[in-house]
Each structure stands twice: as structure tokens, then as C-alpha cells.
Amino acid sequence: MFSHLLLAVLGPSDLWYAVPLIVAVSLVYAATRHEQTQEILRHAARTATWIAGFMAVVFVALWLVTWFV
Amino acid sequence: MTTQKSDSLEPTTETVHLKDPALAALLAWLIPGLGHFYQGRWAKAVLLFVCIMGTFVYGLYLGSDPAVGWGRVVYWTWQPGEKRLYYFCQIGVGLPAVPAIIQAIRVHGGEGPMGTFMAPPFLGAEKNAPPGRIALDQIHRRLGRYFELGTIYTAVAGLLNILAIFDAWAGPVIPAPHPKKEDKDDEKHPDDKAPSPADASTVKS
Known about the structure:
Chain A is mostly helical and 69 residues long.
């Protein structure tokens, strides 16, 4: 079960196209909130983690739906 | 410039010189990061240019194919069959998306497009496409899902630049301090209040 999930996440997938977008969105968003580079990077890391976590929750929810349907 | 905290998301106290905010906003729209460069905010200028232009150019690359030309996901057309709403997002990136307007004016004025770069596609059947025009069906068939991916990348780049334009015009939007933490600080040091967001960063134009 979990090997299928890991393969779906880490295997060849269009999900990888989300990574550059997450990085760019996090950095630009953080740059509009702070002026210092260290603060921008710190805020960007937290924003990226939050976005990736949110996507992961949605992914698992949808995956569970397909599993039980 | 006074640095207050380094391990939280709360801001440092500093002064940001915006010079002429309207000019900075215009420059920020023309080229991502140029407004910040004008204001002397070098690090942010480089960061914004790399992130926004990188996203935009990668989107153009995804929307390219030798058979249909380069940058086919950024174009302007407004007619029955296709109203290209994505372009309203893509134009946020400024000059890099302007060739699409020039191409659209040429095509709708009866002239042919200059090459295929950002040219509006022909909406009829592929066999009826006039010389120099490529049908939208053909573009979709060649690019497949990369048409959607490229469109999303370029649209997101334009939307991100709108955030950057606002930052050049008005300075950074300082996050509000955490209310619970502020309350605790007040309880510990009632005479020593935490700075309000307005105090945390001074914007000078």
C-alpha cells in the first residue's frame, strides 16, 4: 500500500513540476514580507513547507478516496 | 538599522528608501526586479528577477516545440472560440509578455505575425490555416500537457510580479506580531511594549 503511495509521489510524475513553482512562490512571497535576506529565506522555507504539506494532505486524501472507491 | 529578532518570522526594524514609488512600480512592472534595483534594494532585485523571470522563461520553454515554434503559451486573442484570460495574468510580468500584444495587433490588422513567437494561433481547421499561422489544434497535439504546464508557469510568474510591484511601490508588508506572544511579553514586561507592525519597518519615499 505504502510502496504504491511512495511510487506515486516520487516516481516519474507531473507533481515534480510543482517544485520550481513552490520555490519561486515561497521566495517571492517572503520577499514581499521582509527586507533582510536571512528573514526572507527563513520565511520562504516555512511557506514552502506549508504549501508542500497542504499538497501532501490533499494528495493523501485523494489517494485514499481512490483506494476505497 | 536595528536588528531585533533572528529566529522568528517577525520583522527587523529598518528603514526602506522607496525613492519615487510610482516610478519604481512602473520599472518593477517593465522588468521584474528593476524597480527594486532602482531603489537600491539589490538583493531583492536579483531574487525577484531570478524567481519571476526563471518561472516565466521555463514556462515559455515548456510551451515550445520545433514544429510549432517557441513560446506558444503566451498569446493574446479575444474572439468567439477562445478568450485568452490567462494573458491578463501573464502580462503582469511586463515587457517580456508585450510581444504577444504586437503579434495580436498584426494578426487582427490583417498582417501576418512576425514569426511564431507569442503569435495568436489560428482557431479554424489546421488545413485552412493561412501561411505563417499555426492552428491551435496542432499546438495542443504537439505540446500535450506541456501547453497547460507552460500556461500555468507563465501566468504564475505574472501574478508573482504583481506582488513585487506592490513591494516596490509600498515596501514590504510587515507580518503582524503573534498576539499570544505579544500578550505574554506584556505580562512579563508591562512597561516595555513590543513594537507595532507600523513601527517595525519605516518606509521612506
